[in-house]
Structure prediction request, 186 residues.
Amino acid sequence: MEAMKKIKIVMGVILFAAVALFLFHNLPRTAVVQISGTDMKRVDRESGKVVNKNVLDDQQANKLKTYDVRYINSVARNGKTMVFRNEDTGWGWPPYFKFDSADLTAQAQAFASVPEKPWVLVRYYGWRIRILSMFPNAVSLKAVGSNYSHFPLFNIVFVSLLVVAVFIVWRKIRKLLKGRRGPDQS
Prediction:
């Protein structure tokens, strides 16, 4: 195999992996959990680290630009704890247009206050990376049964349409490039 073909294959694999990771991070996923409580922490805008209000004096507090981040604590069916960030996406990326994080926190607190702890379907995006203190962002909550199983119809349709669009664009580009080469070249 010649070197140029190897380079094309490696670049194709890297591009495919990057697109797959991008979609895996940004497309919605779900988890069926019981909500155990909510939390709010003050976070520095630049570093993303939690700020301890007791340590800061007034002069430092004025220099530091911070904001509140809400968290939803839960337990999955397998007994594993899951923590979700509850932050508005606004008009930014990814385009969930979420402006109701306070309402979502109130809904989570209502689920947590019920003595029999109902099962809740949490729709979220993002990853939980403990070493980087990254949490997935909750988008919506809905009460469901304990045996509920979610079918990701939106993700399947979206990825299918994306594959079709990429295939059509690829065919058009190939046809355009073939026309430029002329009939005597291969």
